[in-house]
Amino acid sequence: MPPTHKGWRAWLAGIAALLATGCSGLPQEVDRPVSHALTAPSGTTLGRLVQERHKSAGARFPSGFQLLSGPQAAYSSRLALVEAAEKTLDLQYYAIHADASTERLLTGVVAAARRGVRVRVLLDDFHSTGRDAQVMRLAFEPNIEMRMFNPVPGARGSGLGRMLSMLADFKRMQQRMHNKLFIADNAMGVSGGRNLGDAYFGNAESGNFVDMDVLAAGPVVQELSRSFDSYWNNQRAYPVQSLITRKELDALRSSFDASDAATPATPNPTTEPQGQPQGSDAQRAYIWNQEPMDLAQAGLVWAPAAVLVDQPAKIPSDEPNGAVPLPERAPSGASPLSITARKTPGTPAAAPVAGDAATDTVVDGLLQLMGYARKELLIISPYFVPGPDMLQAFAAARARGVRVRVLTNSLASNDAPIAHVGYARHRPELLAMGVELFEMRSELAGLRGAFSSSGSTGGSRAMLHSKLLVMDERLLAVGSMNLDQRSQRQNTEIALLIRSKELSGQVTERIKQALGAVAWEVTLTEDRQLRWHAPQGSDLPDSHTEPDTSLPLRLMLRLLGPLAPDSLL
User: Fold this and answer.
1) Which DSSP string corresponds to 135-171?
2) Which of 256, 267, 416, 466 is the most interior residue, by most CB within 10 Å?
3) Are residues 166 and 63 in the same domain?
4) Residue 313: inside a domain, yes or no?
5) What is the CATH classification number for the domain harbouring 127?
């Protein structure tokens, strides 16, 4: 039965209310006290530890690094940094999920603040809705400041309201802060591809991300901190208190669904900022049984390095009159390319890729560095949507005789299937120019040896999330960036560029092992049809269609593909 006249009026009033809520603007004249990283890390226990490790190693270079390839190493390193911090903790993330893994980490962060550590948390605002909005309770803890980067206006309990807000300012909402940093006392820190949440630490029931981080120590951490400061003191960073009140967070938590209410947990004052603990008993036991890494025994490799980082201004400001970033303590150098040329001995100065104007983005810097490859490029990019300049960089490398191998997600392992469309439309061209393509198998079987994913209690589905590049087995880039146009032109990113044969060799060995054990190799047949070759020892048959996927999914993406431009994937 159609609604009555009165019913239509109520319906229209409801829509109008949603629009008013969803499209409300951001607060103006927000107070953002300027602060900076610890200026004298050598005066802390972590700072002295780094100096002692460097001296005992007799190292030529002042900065040290350890790869963190498995979920246990990634998690235990962050636990250790939280426990060891004496003066400052700085966390910068695209997403922090309110679940069991984050509960323990944030419990430690709150405990650190209560013992006098100054804590700053900078979080992109895209995912901070519903249950995940409860992470914002950190802002109401003494000695913790929390800011949201590029906020989404509107109600956080309404998915529709958030969607309407994004549609009202679509261009800005598409541009997100994707950087990931976890820094203690400006002396040691972790950077890489992981966000904070169960799926990033092998603890999610539906599936887990395969990822890699780097533990960094020494002066390079101060470069990471300068990057953090430039974002923290930027006008796109809004203190949580300017966006939501503690009372509103309480009301939002009370609206959680009945399944959460049916399993109440005993309140714990140290976990109050997170709210209702999440996860099964097995998940929580696995997390709480994790031991912090012994940082004094970390296997540091000392090497020259540079920080490549996008400027915060890559994302437009919502402030009136086009406000610009605050100038205090901006990252040194006009661009990540100049940082690379200045700070990485033995690396050639960057030159623009032919046909593309030089810009100040991390991905453009990596493309320009590819121009100096002479033998081999090994690339892991979970979301791989090459634009014209990327395709040109690959073609130029192949013309020089460089072997180029790329590992990305298969359609089955991709957590964002629509992003696969942009990659799929370029597969024939990439294969024709001689780029070797490998796609991640969606099952965890075989990952134990390739990516050290043992020890998790989560689901069996694996989703590639590492972002790596190895050039000529001597230059390693690890960071938050994908080789896609979103990372290149819209999101802000950060990467560590390390010149080390030892670390490059470690990563190269793991990638090559993964290519054989856990990836489908894609080739072109003589009649230019795609063929997927099964991983070695898997006993799986080769395939002429996207492996492990359903016909409806393949048909849906084929229909949606023409409607999805590469720039939005």
Assistant:
1) GGGGGGSTTEEEEEESPPPS-SS-HHHHHHHHHHTHH
2) 466
3) yes
4) no
5) 3.30.870.10
Residues 458 and 563 grouped into a single domain: yes
Is 322 exposed, middle or buried (CB count within 10 Å of its CB: 0-12, 13-18, 19+)? Answer: exposed
Burial profile 126-156: b = 16 or more Cβ within 10 angstroms, e = fewer? bbbbbbbbbbbbbbbbeebbbbbbbbbbbbb
Range of the domain at 78: 54-296
- Kindly state whether residue 218 falls inside one of the protein's structural domains: yes
With CA atoms as reference, report the closest residue to 144 among 111, 121, 124, 115. 121
Residue owning tokens 């490799």: 301
Distance linking the first and last C-alpha atoms of the chain: 41
Q: What is the number of domains present in the chain?
A: 2
pTM here is 0.86
264/358 same-domain check: no
Same domain for 491 and 557: yes
Residue whose pair of structure tokens reads 């948390």 in the numeric block: 121
Distance of CA 376 to the CA centre of its chain: 26
Q: In what order do the strands lie in the sheet with 494-499?
A: 305-309, 494-499, 475-479, 468-471, 376-380, 403-409, 436-440, 519-524, 530-533
Q: Which pLDDT score is estimated for 260?
A: 55
Q: Partners of 91 in the beta sheet? A: 121, 182
Q: Please state the rounded mean pLDDT for residues 497-501.
A: 98
Degrees to nearest 5, angle at CA 86 with 80 and 92: 65
Among the three residues 266, 296, 326, which one is the final residue of a domain in this structure? 296
- Of residues 280 and 133, more confidence is placed in 133
What was the pLDDT predicted at 324?
31
3-state SS of the chain: helix, strand, coil percent to 5? 40, 20, 40
| 8 A C-beta contact, residue 212 and residue 464 | no
Residue 496 domain flag? yes
| Angstrom distance (rounded) from CA 172 to CA 178 | 14
**368 & 255 share domain:** no
**561 and 420 fall within a common domain:** yes
Q: What is residue 459's predicted lDDT score, i.e. its pLDDT? A: 57
Asked if residue 242 has pLDDT above 90, the reply is: yes
Is 566 in a helix, a strand, or coil?
helix
Regarding whether 286 and 345 lie in a shared domain, the answer is no
Give the C-alpha separation, 456 to 462, whole Å: 12
The tokens describing 282, both together, are: 């097995």
Per residue in 115-172, pLDDT (tens digit) is 999 999 999 999 998 889 999 999 999 999 999 999 998 788 767 777 777 787 788 8
Pairing mode, strands 208-210 and 436-440: unpaired
The count of residues in the chain is: 569
In a domain, 322, yes or no: no
